[in-house]
Amino acid sequence: MKRADAPRRTVVASGRGMRRVTTTLGAIAALSSLVLTGCSADSDTTHRTSPVARAEAAATTEKLTYDQDLRISDAEQHLVTVCMRKHGFDYREEKPPSLEESRPVGYVQDDVDWARSHGYGSRIEAKEDLARLRNPNIAYRKSLSRSRQKAFDIAMDGGRDAVVLKAPTPSGGTISKQSGGCAGQAEKALYGDPEAWFRSDVAVRNLRPLYVGKLLADKELKNAVTAWSQCMNKAGHPFPDPDAARQSTRDHSAQQTPAEEARSFANETRIAVADATCARSVSLRSIGERREAHYIGELAGKYGPALTAHLRMQRHALTVAERTVPART
After folding, report:
1. 53 — pLDDT class (breaks 50, 70, 90)
2. 238, 226 in Cβ contact below 8 A?
3. pLDDT tens for residues 92-127?
4. Which contiguous run of DSSP H or E holds residue 263?
5. CA–CA dist 219, 129 (Å, integer)
6. Where do the structural domains in the chain lie, given as residue ranges?
């Protein structure tokens, strides 16, 4: 499950800093970060023909797994790297973390073995933060002359004259981004139509505000969280919900000594193992996935075309990625 609430996507350097292709979730509650991957639809759902039933079934059975999403990210990074080198720049491809380290950790984490090894992933996050600070492409761009920096930016994303894509969000806002250069070419190779991909991606990745209130108030899910909390209390960890358990392990001090970090990680691991054990015992993940899929299904009437287009283009991108880069191990 996701630490950052969904699989992390490729990071590339541009003239305006780091461009992260990812979903950024607000603090509207980590509860809305439940990941649907791996849940099977109810046995009768796939035989119903209503738009809600079809959307609910698609949400639970057809969504890409996190390792497939990572492979698309790796392919995007590879395509950008090849393109930038063709433009004469010493651009370096990121060395991706292992598949296990890349595993997303969401509101529900019920893999006890993973928790025993990684807690909630704080050490993995620290390693990623250090890698971002040491990104060789940013340092390389800074070493260039002003004119070469401008050429670098143009090669990367088209520079200031690049086409600006705009797409409405389901909640009424607008998101825009530049599309050009090697980044644009990589998206075209993966998704076919960068503008159509951007529109569907903005729509699909911003649906949560439309249903998260219902999800938070869902009786079945609230009962499951209560059962989880009771289990945690018996284990000696009195927390009302998984987010509170996770937040209790966050050390906000500026710097820790090695001994302090070891103690913090041991505490994080104890709580994470209890969290995962209790989540599994009360089926919190499957209940959360099923209820989230239900509320997404209710939006099918208006957003069904966007959901369908998004999945179709993701599948196309995965096919391209499988020909471009190996799977992470």
Report:
1. low
2. no
3. 998 888 999 998 888 899 999 999 999 999 999 999
4. helix 258-281
5. 38
6. 11-141+210-324
